[in-house]
Amino acid sequence: MHLLLLLTFFVPGQFTVTPDTGTFKYMTISKDDFYSDMKLKPEIKIIDVRSKSEFLAERIEGAVNIPVSKMPCRKAKKISRETVIYLYCKSGIRSCTAESKFNDMGFKHVFSLENGLSYWEKSGLPVVCGRKGIRRTEFIPRSPYQPIAVPSRR
Q1: What are the residue ranges in the chain where pLDDT is below 50?
Q2: What is this structure's pTM?
Q3: Which residues pair with 24 in a beta bridge?
Q4: Which residue segments constitute the domains of the chain, with CATH numbers given?
């Protein structure tokens, strides 16, 4: 019980615990926490679990590609079990599957991006496109206030 309370203060995102075993089922991280952590904590490993073609088309800056369909693989086995890992896919489903596989391999700090890359992009967060890594969309915080006047279209 004390461990569970401690984790709620130190672990970003949400998690569920299976009642019979007390083990984590999955842990998610919000797009805002993911973005700020990737900028402030370079030691975090960002992994795109989509296919290679999806990864090359668009990705989060600094991510490496380890397709969930190829796990476990040598690339994943080379990562330290104590490394903090942030996973993502297009919608969040494959990253939760990959998270389960990473947990089975003994990783302790694995998080899945809530709602995936599609929600990330809709929020205006930056992605890198193509083989050359062209950046698209810079993050501009949106104001919580509505504009006072909307310009008319003539």
Answers
A1: 1-21, 139-140
A2: 0.73
A3: 17
A4: 11-136 (3.40.250.10)
